[in-house]
Write a structure and sequence with these properties.
homotetramer; alpha+beta; 18 strands; Chorismate synthase, AroC fold; globular; about 20% strand; five-stranded antiparallel beta sheet; 7 helices; FMN (chains A, B, C, D); about 375 residues
């Protein structure tokens, strides 16, 4: 219940630091009776892992997940599922020069002031590496939601710096290193060149990511505070480097009239999805649509002004191995977070209202 | 811990419906020893209350708050503070025609499907009226944060539909009916005319709101999940009608380079505030800056297609008394929510790290 | 989530002090669709209320409950149910003499040291009067558990000071002022005389209470920490004046052999109930049996040594109106707390394992 | 927040099963800046571990703890501390005969009915082996409480079956295999013989354990629900095999008069400690005194009647390696649980009331 747990009923508590011996999480509240193996989890971890193209960090981590508990003879028992991932490719010496200074835009400064002590190796706890256990937990959540309700997840990059990426179909996402939903070769080449230039310049760039859940039953969510959309915003803004979250129309709603924004209903269902699948904090049965703004990586080679622990001026250049665009690997993470929100609300709904009868249309 | 509580250590649990006998909340965890009277709370309630101009709902509610507990001889005792506000101007007959249909863009549909029962009078629990107790609780939080840390709050409207409102100074906010930080008479007249047109057309419009906390010490927040920015996003997206949340640079971060986004540090402090006062989930000591997208009110007179409970087509026109722009009254609500997030993190920080020594510079 | 809430999924947050304007609670998480009126709640409140015999406090309180929210047209809506009870018979002047001293055995001392401020009128927040809202919330829980699962609750006094009270049948409990399950006129007369003597002496006495839940399905509870029995112990020890809790064999288990304690199973069910209906933290389907030790009231007229706020010696005699045996009115409170534990576990079980099929024997 | 976490601010989430690859826990909320090594934790684990005398289970486990995270250069960082303990001596074949039947008095029956699936190897999650991570987490809590407040912990066995063990001094506890606070050689010999007889008979026995915390400041606890004593009762009843909990006078309070039970105050402090260090749910500054009833082990060789999964009659004899008196190893576990309760309340108190000034007497 202290800060490092996510979810009330399907609770994920993570642990570990970028350069410690291992990272992992404990999933408490997974329903019993589901088939679960390490292979079920590994595929999502492989989508997130580093070193898969030249456009992401070159740290080499197999990110092999081990299930330590909660599964007996291949079936979940209802008791906590612990996932463990060894850290294999720590290169802590890269961080010697930043142990006493603060990277602009990085958590170095705030951790040091909050705790009075800080693990500087690879960013310690603030490293995006800590999203690996979350992706593992998300894979468990996704499996249950798919098998129980037919819920699916997808995500893609929609913008890389100033390059907008038109949506061309989910099937293209696995076929390029950017999670882009396009097969436009010219566009993809432009993105590759853009990233190559950035890398040479030692700089980094922001991105926009969309993530969607399909097949969500109507009725998940709570009226006030623990609204489905509020919990989604919490989950998404909690991902490393996220600075903005939209649901449905998002900031476009500012210029919309009520007669334009409110999705009309017909006997065949909703007309349009400005709501992004949530009304009054509760799912409508439509797709849940979310958009994220991801800031550029703060660990860059470009020299920047900063101070050291004594408050004296210092220049900071970060070497180490970093993603020049953390947005690239953010797609599977955002999917995992969305799955964790939905399973928590699915279980909460079941607690309060009993099993949803998914086979019976409720309109 | 069920959905209707906000905050872990300064927990606010609200109750009530738009047309029930009363609304209110219980604040659990307010530190003892603070002077507190109803007058301390009333001023923020008065900023939020309906009927203060022709541009908001004409429902007449005094919104007089009564403290039922937790204060003895004018001082908080550390035990729960219950706030009660009577509902006085219910006009439930206005809702007869929507009891069996669903307003497009409204929670009618989802509540009915989730619970199988629904209080249609004034939107029941989903009414923006339920933000009144939150504003009351927020006033208590603001007072403690101001007295303990010198933290201040401010908010203003930045955009009304397509009309952008340049920031001209906080002092203007109380002097116009829109919470606009401007004294540009032509602009304000344009906004008045815009709202008058909308009202005549029976339509509604979206808005963008900024809210800021000043004087926040460095160190509030948690590394993962219960990040300060994640909790702010949760709080803001949980306000009725919000569809998007930005912190600091927000969606602008998408097109920023790392060398542009990361706020440099000098011995005099940060240069710029792209971070919006949060790095790695923890406050930097700078202003916390938040921006919200608020959708247009879904209760409009313009006829819209919908269905009834049997699934048959129906046209819906909403009469009753509604805000044509819910964004107008959202400013004090957003301030209150931000205060609730900050007090919770202030107490959590005190639990984990002891009292912050606000008089000692920590750089 | 701060200390004054009970339950994770059926959460009850209470507020109020003995001599404030009102006391009450907010119930968050009550399932929708249950018929509920104030009369459903009043009957249990009447069992607990003061002034019903000469053996309890003579404070006159009607303890009329008002439902402020969460019920529409007589049916629970799934949104928070607020219960309000006015305080009517405060006589705060009785407490003038204890505002600056500490009653031995009372919370006066600890509240003052914890908070640095204390409402001395009637014990403020520490008064047993605060069990009234709990009994109200318990009545709601009992109704749902009875209608959904056929679960019933009963309780009785088993010992009054040194007077042991043999169990003679639940039907006798409402027929005497002690909640004694007996119609033994001589024994009851002895108890009356015993209490009369105590009252004249200005002293008080302890008691032992048994409470039982029947019809509980197998499977409620969690393996570790949030065990059903652990939560029952928490609930019972949290009742004012409770100093000991037993489940099933309780302290008798100390002298039992394994071959004696472990309840054997036959195709017809368990043989015996040493377990008290809980094994491994999870309900067995047998009766849940609980026993409580309740200390004597600390507000007595007998003069006692104490100190005042300056630390100087002082003698304390408490006048006011007090129960000479708080154990007498504890029975409906203990039933209510047991009901609150069970409904929380019922909902948690439903979240994790789906609806229990109560019509299908699971052996 | 699902059932397998303990504590709100110093939260311990455990995982693992008796015969899985490893067991462990994640401690979230440990304050930063404390020196911590594996050796600090190992000593308490060694007090609890199996195989240290012929009177406990002969399973051979080194119970070596590994710190996976949360400590950097020997200092806690304020981020989650993961503890891992490998299981080394699983002998799962011993459990073949109980996979399809239910041991009387054991969780076999309830787990199977709750989850529909069960890990029968060594009791799976219900094994007392799962108290090892708790003892590890408790050691961390003890260290912080000792260094910050000077709080100490001690425990001893007070009764083994019908053999009462007079308290002769804490210094004797480590010198015998029973955690008995005595050096009475005749008594200890009698206990040894008693256990030898039991073991030969294949039976088991109950026990009573006392546990004490010293040096606790006044003011830890909450008025209602999350009372210090309520949380202690929850913690203690949650330990495997506990059936009863007393604080201070416990069940003796039933026969006490108010003039006898209420601890008088003098300028030198309290006279007596019937309260057991808690009044009104808040610590008094006296020793916290707790007593536990522990049932006999349910895994015994004595043949007992039971049923199998089909509901048919079956006789059960349990072979495997079991403690004939689980009470023997319960002392360090009870100390650990008490420490976990106290650190949580210490942090909660600090959140609400600021740092306790332990160097300033507050009377």
């Amino acid at each position: 219940m202290s800060g490092n747990s996510f979810g009330k009923l399907f609770s994920v508590t993570t642990f570990g630091e970028s350069h410690g011996p291992a990272i992992g999480c404990v999933i408490d509240g997974c329903p019993p009776g589901m088939l679960l193996s390490e292979a079920d989890i590994q595929s999502d971890l492989d989508r997130r892992k580093p070193g898969t193209s030249r456009h992401v960090t070159q740290r080499q981590e197999a990110d092999r997940v081990q299930i330590l508990s909660g599964v007996y003879e291949g079936v979940t028992t209802g008791t906590p599922i612990a996932l463990l991932i060894q850290n294999e490719d720590q290169r802590s010496k890269d961080y010697g020069n930043i142990a006493d200074t603060f990277r602009p835009g990085h958590a170095d400064y705030t951790y040091w002031h909050k705790y009075g002590v800080r693990d500087p190796r690879g960013g310690g706890r603030s490293s995006a590496r800590l999203t690996a256990p979350v992706v593992g937990a998300g894979a468990v959540a996704k499996k249950w939601l798919r098998e129980r309700y037919g819920i699916g997840f997808a995500g893609c990059m929609r913008q890389l710096g100033e390059i907008e990426i038109p949506f061309g179909g989910w099937e293209h996402v696995p076929n390029n290193p950017f999670f882009a939903a396009t097969d436009d070769a010219a566009l993809l080449a432009r993105m590759e060149a853009y990233m190559d230039d950035l890398r040479r310049a030692g700089d980094s760039i922001g991105a926009r990511i969309d993530v969607v859940a399909t097949g969500v039953p109507v009725g998940f969510g709570q009226p006030i505070y623990d609204k489905l959309d509020a919990d989604i915003a919490y989950a998404m803004m909690g991902i490393n480097a996220v600075k903005g979250v939209e649901i449905g129309a998002g900031f476009n709603a500012v210029v919309q009239k009520g007669s334009e924004h409110g999705d009309e209903l017909t006997p065949e269902g909703f007309v349009g999805n400005q709501a992004g699948g949530v009304l009054g904090g509760i799912s409508t049965g439509q797709d849940i649509t979310v958009s994220l703004a991801i800031k550029p990586t703060s660990s860059i080679r470009v020299p920047r002004r900063s101070i050291d622990k004594t408050g004296a001026p210092a220049m900071v250049e970060t070497f180490g191995r970093h993603d020049p665009c953390v947005g690239i690997r953010a797609t599977p993470i955002a999917e995992a977070m969305l799955a964790l929100v939905l399973i928590d609300h699915a279980l909460m709904h079941r607690a309060q209202c009993g099993d949803v009868h998914v086979d019976t249309p409720r309109i």
